[in-house]
Design a protein that fits this description.
The protein is built from five helices and ten strands. Strands 3-4-5-6-7-8 form a six-stranded mixed sheet, sandwiched between helices. Strands 1-2 form a two-stranded antiparallel sheet. It is globular.
Amino acid sequence: MLRANGTERCVLGERPRMLETPDMARTAHDARAAALPPRRRFTIRDYHRMGEAGIFHEDDRVELLDGEIVEMSPIGSRHAGIVDRLTMLFARRLGRWVIVRVQNPIVLDDYSEPQADLTLLTPRPDYYVDAHPRPADVLLAVEVMGTSGSYDRTLKLPLYARRRIRELWLVDLPAAAIDVYRRPSAAGYREHQHLPRGRRMGPLAFPRVHFRVAEILG
């Protein structure tokens, strides 16, 4: 209870109220965090065993990102059309020098197997039938985003950078633009270009081959 002068006193039968200091608040936060059960990160081996055991339905759209199984967003008609258009453009202009892959896995490390919308891969006679490609095999990864706040930007972008995917294009449908990321590092991509309609770009591995943003977006 407050006295008239602003000081506090305890009334008989009233439970004293303790004032919380910043140190006490931090201690309480740490105690709550310590009480949370540890999270298990799934390996790629775990992930594939789940698939073999029938835990995932054949129509489930999931991918493994940094040890967590993430449900992928449904593919809308515009998203699908952009992927088809890019597949055609890549095949026509680069098909002699690359393997164009559509929505298939990349093994980034023991805990991550994302499925980029498109990848340009270093050619191999076996077409990677014995194992999925790894970062050194990927010349370019492309993700098509139906929303600007997509987890492609918040989760996959830094993951691709840490695992040294040399170039990433994020096709941002709401912004009608393409973000080009290069020079990967543990802290993220060190080079970024935001390219709206009217601009053009070429893959780092093939600087003489150009694509107009407008022809990709339609």
